[in-house]
Amino acid sequence: MKAIMVMFDSLNRVMLPPYGGLDIVAPNFQRLAEHAATFDNFYAGSLPCMPARREIHTGRYNFLHRGWGPIELYDDSMPELLKQNGVYTHLVTDHWHYWEQGGSDYQTKYNSFEYARGPEGDPWKGRVDFDVPEHLYGRQDNCGRQEYINRHYTPKEEDISIAQNFKHGLEFIDENFRSDNWFLPHEPYYVPDRFMSLYEKEYHGRFFDWPQYVRVGHSGETEEEIQHVINKYRAVVSMCDHYLGQVLDRMDQYDLWKDTMLIVNTDHGFMLGEKEWMGKNIQPMYEELIHTPFFIYDPRNPIQGERRQQLAQTVDIVPTLAEFFQIAPPEFMDGHSLTPIIQHDTAVRDYELFGIFGGHICITDGRYVYMRSCKDQENGPLYEYTSMPCHMDRPFSLEEMTQAEFCDKKESPFMKGCGVFKIPAKTFVQPYRFGTLLFDLANDPEQKHPIHDPVVEEHLCQVMIKMMKENQAPEEQFERMGFTV
């Protein structure tokens, strides 16, 4: 048996034709839906990028204990478990955060890995003197500057990281399709003109193709400029669709449908002006961010062209793969195998928890979404628990570590008695300024009108507390939320 997972970064579900994005040129996503089961109620759990990927390794929510960080020493990694059980695992990626300090030890869990360089702030090509082009927001930090340096060295479509990424992944399939027992995950606003021309013939505004995570109008963007960046995103989706088609072609060419699981997913969505926001991970976890596309084909249950309505989450991918390869899943998981949903659309969960470290703690039952804010603007107490004290791109500072306690987390069995640092945390998210929010998706799917319903809120509070306890959430998280337990 074999499995392929194609994971796109920041993919907004409503931009895809199978989810209603009919103004987007993306025939291969429609082709995929005809070959697979399309999930209508799939949600991310821990945001943003690396926390979501940690869930794909562990099958556990991690946003209650930790922000962005490495695979922890006590984590059970699904790729590593597969490797230990004779399944060859190979990672193909252009997600450069794996090579930052806060992304360490993810790629080493695989038998082998390949990296397509250049996206975002990848410190790839060195230029001491380089004039960053004038652009909206005027981003001049290292990440922004490096992005434009890298683009200087990728002038052709075949040079762009997404093209290189899929090339590497297809090479693996070409060379190994006859072999058994392998797992290949691979991931992809810089877009060639041939895709951009699908949505925009001319543009007269400022250079704008990298929206920051701010309110719309932060830098006086015009309507034309906002529409331009939306068109850029649409073009990126069409580019992703083009390369997805090449994976589907290989599935056909080598008749992989008979023995290969195919998963196509994303870590989270992206906001393009909805609720007056651009980007991700600052504002509350609205549907545009957390409610994600998900497609799966399982050769054991070859459901094709059907939709599934039951709730499912990123944490459910791990137990699904473990079952598929007939290995024992990690001992401590919040996920459930998706097989019952694939087979008969039978529920595997009634509620889903999600959020970002230090932000709202959120829950949904598929109809209501409840976003619980912190009890006061101090947003505390809040601590990070880690055996590897790294932020996204740097280690914890000396000042932070002088405040750290070293504790034996025996009360958290998933940490397996590992001594961890308990470090006072600061976070750029501030849930208090938005307050607690309750939405009825049946009557307000765009979440424009929060409701007040004490009965629903109390019920969801109690379920939230129960799920937090099951996740062995630190006691101060209950205090931060104003829960009495």
Write the layout of secondary structure elements.
Elements: E1 2-8, H1 27-35, E2 37-39, E3 42-43, E4 46-47, H2 49-58, H3 78-84, E5 88-93, E6 112-115, H4 142-152, H5 161-176, E7 182-186, H6 193-196, H7 223-253, E8 260-266, E9 271-272, E10 278-279, H8 287-290, E11 291-292, E12 295-297, E13 306-308, E14 312-313, H9 317-324, H10 339-344, E15 352-356, E16 361-364, E17 368-372, E18 383-386, H11 398-402, E19 405-408, E20 419-424, E21 437-440, H12 454-470, H13 475-481
Parallel strand pairs: 1-7, 1-8, 2-13, 3-14, 4-15, 5-6, 5-7
Antiparallel strand pairs: 2-12, 3-11, 8-12, 9-10, 15-16, 16-17, 17-21, 18-20, 19-20
Helix pairs in contact: 1-7, 5-7
Describe this structure in words.
- The chain is of the alpha/beta class.
- The chain has 13 helices and 21 strands.
- The strands form 5 sheets. Strands 6-5-7-1-8-12-2-13 form an 8-stranded mixed beta sheet, with helices on both faces.
- α1 (27-35) packs across α7 (223-253) and α5 (161-176) packs parallel to α7.
